[in-house]
Amino acid sequence: MNNMLEIKGITKTYNAGKPNQIEVLRGIDLTLKRGEVVALTAPSGAGKSTLLHIAGLLDVPDAGTVTIAGQDMTGLGDRRRTAMRRAGVGFIYQFHHLLPEFTALENVVLPQLANAVPQAEAEARAMALLDKVGISRRATHRPAALSGGEQQRVAFCRALANGPGLLLADEPTGNLDPETSDLVFDVLMELVRDEGLSALIATHNHELAAKMDRVVKLDMGQVVPA
Ligand SMILES: Nc1ncnc2c1ncn2[C@@H]1O[C@H](COP(=O)(O)OP(=O)(O)OP(=O)(O)O)[C@@H](O)[C@H]1O
Questions:
Q1: Helix (H) or strand (E) holding 128
Q2: Which of 24, 25, 110, 163 has its CA 20 to 30 A from that of 142?
Q3: Which one, of 203, 211, 200, lies nearest residue 90 by Cα?
Q4: Among residues of the chain, what percentage have pLDDT more than 70?
Q5: Rg (the chain; Cα; Å)
Q6: What's the pLDDT score for residue 140?
Q7: Is the C-beta atom of 24 inside 6 A of ligand 1?
Q8: Candidates 3.40.640.10, 3.40.50.2300, 3.40.50.300, 1.20.1250.20; CATH matching 36-57+77-224
Q9: Does the C-beta of 50 come closer than 6 Å to ligand 1?
């Protein structure tokens, strides 16, 4: 089992059967090998976020299969799908979505507690991750006291808190100024390589895409030559 993610024949239509229906994904096949880091590029509206949400078990396709670490995720009930996602998939959004009332450390601890990791162990893992991205000294600060780049680094740690094998990221540095974006992106790549993750990272930035192993291009709901 050499593949971390296998997507086969994925289709998705919003508002199916209605006059304003939108056929977003039209038969997507995509495979990520273990340890492979792949850039996903697409024009706006091509279905990139929809595909990432389906791959990350946040949404279900109309047809096709998603296999993660050799396990077929097709047809799982909501509860089981959530459990599989919590344990096996890390997701990073363009906007950090950190919980504002909790500190940086707590934001990285909480998903582990939801995954039944003991508190002390969760805190140790959270501190180690914050240290790796260079912000352990801000561990007790709330998100509002952190810069955009720092907030996003905390979000990276949160995504990796439960040690997933697969990381999915939807324009993870798209909200930052170009200089900060480059710096924070390098931190992310280091983290991904360090943790030995497979990652599918959506970006509009061709320089960032070039830092990854391979580029997959999506257009009009299909994979097209990059
Ligand atoms: N819940 C929904 N209901 C109806 N249409 C939707 C829904 N979610 C997305 N769409 C539509 O599906 C298409 C693809 O959306 P998606 O967010 O996957 O694109 P994207 O490639 O990520 O775009 P962007 O780069 O602009 O974020 C768009 O036309 C969008 O308007």
A1: helix 119-132
A2: 163
A3: 200
A4: 100
A5: 17
A6: 97
A7: yes
A8: 3.40.50.300
A9: yes
| 68 CB neighbour count, 10 Å cutoff | 24
Closest protein CA for atom 29 of ligand 1: 45
- Residue to mutate (ligand 1; options 24, 41, 216; most atoms within 8 A of CB): 24
For residue 55, pLDDT beyond 70 = yes
Q: Are 188 and 76 contacting, i.e. CB atoms less than 8 angstroms apart?
A: no
ipTM of this predicted complex? 0.95
Beginning with the edge strand found earlier in the chain, give each strand of the sheet holding 63-68 in spatial order.
22-33, 3-14, 63-68, 71-72
Q: What is the three-class DSSP state of 43?
A: coil
Atom of ligand 1 nearest to the CA of 46: 21
For residue 47, give the ligand 1 atom closest to its CA.
18
Helix or strand or coil: residue 132? Answer: helix
Backbone angles phi, psi at 38, to 5 degrees: -120, 135
Distance 102 CA to ligand 1 centre (A): 31
pTM: 0.93
- What number is the average pLDDT over the span 48-62? 95
Ligand 1 pocket: which of 11, 15, 21, 22 to mutate (most atoms <8 Å of CB)? Answer: 22
Answer whether residue 1 shows pLDDT above 70.
no
Test site for ligand 1: of 28, 48, 168, 217, most ligand atoms within 8 A of the Cβ: 48
Could you read off the pLDDT of 8-46 as tens digits, one per residue? 999 999 987 888 888 999 999 999 999 999 999 999 888
All structural domains of the chain with their residue ranges: 36-57+77-224
